[in-house]
Every structure is written in structure tokens, then in C-alpha cells.
Write a structure and sequence with these properties.
single chain; mainly alpha
């Protein structure tokens, strides 16, 4: 049984598309995680600054 060439091209296209989809999803998840960590760091920094301001206010 001989498989036409175009079928191999379609199968290769499906495999490549699946690989690219998985790769893109993984990269997006990593980016979202990095952004969430940065936002968390910013939030924690602001909380510490606010805590210092309150501490200084109560000491004065």
C-alpha cells in the first residue's frame, strides 16, 4: 500500500502544529508565573514600605 505524498505532508503539519502549540503554552505559563512573582514582589515591597511609614508615624 502506497501512501500519497500529500498525506505525509498533512501528518507532518499536524505534528508540527501540535508541537508549536505545546511549546507556546509552556512559554506563556512561564511568562505568567514570572509576572505574578514580580507583582507579588512589588506588593510585598509596598506593604513593607507602608509598615515602615506607620512605624515612623507612631514613633513621632
Amino acid at each position: 500500500m502506497v501512501v500519497p505524498f500529500w498525506i505525509w505532508l498533512v501528518v507532518a503539519g499536524i505534528v508540527i502544529s501540535a508541537y508549536m502549540t505545546i511549546r507556546t503554552n509552556r512559554e506563556e505559563k512561564e511568562m505568567e508565573l514570572r509576572e505574578a512573582e514580580q507583582e507579588g514582589d512589588i506588593y510585598i515591597k509596598r506593604m513593607e514600605e507602608e509598615k515602615e511609614k506607620r512605624k515612623q508615624f507612631h514613633e513621632a
